[in-house]
Write a structure and sequence with these properties.
Number of domains: 1
Structural class: alpha/beta
Radius of gyration: 18 Å
CATH class: Alpha Beta
Distance between the termini: 57 Å
Helix content: 25-40%
CATH topology: Glutaredoxin
Strand order of the largest sheet: 5-4-3-6-7
Largest sheet: 5 strands, mixed
Order of helices and strands: HEEEHEHEHEEH
CATH architecture: 3-Layer(aba) Sandwich
Number of helices: 5
């Protein structure tokens, strides 16, 4: 009887730890674990971009055009991108499906609200499958492609600048 209770207790503890890991995004955000294989996306402007960037640190902003917080934090992200300059590349990724919103509409929305960096569509959730799926989410990769920071929710310019300088 005691042995069964011990096994059940250990299994419960393992399940709890796994749930906590998944709830935190399922990745190690301290730079000890490399990112998943690079993913190449086509931007809504027709160019291509690889995540993570093989040449320099990359800040990824996962957003949705329908997300109020995403829209409201874009000025802070623009400030951070301006401050970090060429030291850290920026890209924004949306998982909104073409049947819901087409590329010209995203481009128009981005021209009205977004930053001077590329925006891509994650149609098949290839990014979201490996990183946090919530919106808005930031993932900062260093130049070696390791995840150095993940954050879900509103981000300030100071947060992004501080983290970006640490990997630049």
């Amino acid at each position: 009887m005691r042995r069964r209770e011990l096994v059940v207790g250990a299994a419960g503890l393992a399940a709890l730890a796994g749930g906590a890991y998944t709830h935190r995004g399922g990745t190690i955000a301290n730079g000890r674990q490399p990112a998943h294989d690079p993913i190449t996306f086509e931007t809504v402007a027709g160019d291509s971009i690889t995540v993570p960037d093989p040449e320099r640190p990359l800040f990824v902003d996962r957003f949705a055009t329908t997300c109020r917080v995403c829209r409201e934090q874009l000025p802070a992200l623009r400030t951070a991108a301006d401050e970090l300059g060429d030291a850290v590349a920026f890209v924004s990724i949306t998982a909104e499906q073409p049947a819901v919103i087409d590329d010209p509409t995203i481009r128009t929305w981005w021209d009205d609200h977004g930053g001077p960096w590329p925006v891509v569509r994650d149609d098949d959730w290839s990014f979201a499958r490996h990183y946090r799926q919530a919106t808005p989410t930031a993932v900062l990769f260093d130049a070696a492609g390791r995840i150095r920071w993940e954050h879900t929710g509103r981000k300030s310019a100071d947060q992004v600048i501080e983290r970006g300088r640490a990997v630049a």
